[in-house]
Amino acid sequence: MTIYPAIDIRGGKCVRLKQGRYDDITIFSDDPVKMALQFQKAGAKYLHVVDLDAARGDSDNREIIRTIAKELSIPVQVGGGIRTMADIEEVLGFGVSRVIIGTSAVKDPEMVKEAVEEFKSRIVVGIDARDSFVAIEGWEKTSRVKAVKHAQNMEALGVQTIIYTDIATDGMLAGPNILAMSEMVKKVKMDVIASGGVASLNDIRRLKEVGVAGVIVGKAIYTGDVDLRKALEIV
């Protein structure tokens, strides 16, 4: 299992949201590049970066992301506002290893199919669930698509990895939705990366037992609830 330290960027700063709400934001660093380098120094094998501005359609932080990809020697996966083939090509061109498609995977599955045919395993689909339905557009809207069904549809298109986020737990430090993660792992053959709610090393142990391929840890690292080095030892 892989631990993915998370860097969410808004307005050029490293932040965390509660349950995806843009009106409930905490700034943890003014320098996302420095934070990324710290994670790498701590032993992280992969980095997870989300451009919150691009996800909302406000602006983007792609120059910062380009710098992160250039400065780090470990692979980086990037999500947020990646809605077209041009977006995919641009961000992959920064040197990142994978891009995450969220909203567009719901609205335009044909684009996902085209992207997977061209870029194979470098395409990851982010499935963000609110009450088991897929949330879109920076989590500000909820679709009528069930998360598990959406995952199965993506698998049929050749997607090899999904990031499954339970919005209710995200940023709350209340523990992940183990039941939802377990159900997703059982329903698909893809790699499932769990996201949302990790608050302790024990949460990571429980997710490992469920069989997820990876876990994204964000706020808990910044608050000190999870020691990244110890988490890496567990996996």
What's the assembly state of these chains? Answer: single chain
Q: From the alpha-carbon coordinates, what is the Rg to the nearest angstrom?
A: 16 Å
CATH architecture: Alpha-Beta Barrel
**For this structure, what is the CATH class?**
Alpha Beta
Nearest-integer average pLDDT:
94
Q: CATH topology, which one? A: TIM Barrel
The count of domains is 1
* Number of separate helices: 11
The counted number of beta strands is 12
- Tell me the strand percentage band: 25-35%
Could you give a quick summary of the protein structure above?
The protein has 235 residues and is of the alpha/beta class.
Please characterize this protein's 3D structure.
The chain is of the alpha/beta class. The chain has a single domain, classed as Aldolase class I (TIM Barrel, Alpha-Beta Barrel), CATH 3.20.20. Helices cover 39% and strands 30% of the residues. It has eleven helices and twelve strands. The protein has helices at 32-41, 52-56, 62-71, 85-92, 103-107, 109-119, 147-156, 178-187, 201-210, 219-223, 228-234, and strands at residues 2-10, 13-18, 21-29, 47-51, 76-79, 98-101, 123-130, 133-136, 141-146, 161-166, 191-195, 214-217. It has an eight-stranded parallel β-barrel, surrounded by eight helices. The longest helix has 11 residues, at 109-119. The mean pLDDT is 94.
Provide the descriptors you would attach to this structure in a database record.
eight-stranded parallel β-barrel; 235 residues; globular; TIM Barrel; alpha/beta; 11 helices
What's the structural blueprint in terms of helices and strands?
Elements: E1 2-10, E2 13-18, E3 21-29, H1 32-41, E4 47-51, H2 52-56, H3 62-71, E5 76-79, H4 85-92, E6 98-101, H5 103-107, H6 109-119, E7 123-130, E8 133-136, E9 141-146, H7 147-156, E10 161-166, H8 178-187, E11 191-195, H9 201-210, E12 214-217, H10 219-223, H11 228-234
Parallel strand pairs: 1-4, 1-12, 4-5, 5-6, 6-7, 7-10, 10-11, 11-12
Antiparallel strand pairs: 1-2, 2-3, 7-8, 8-9
Helix pairs in contact: 1-3
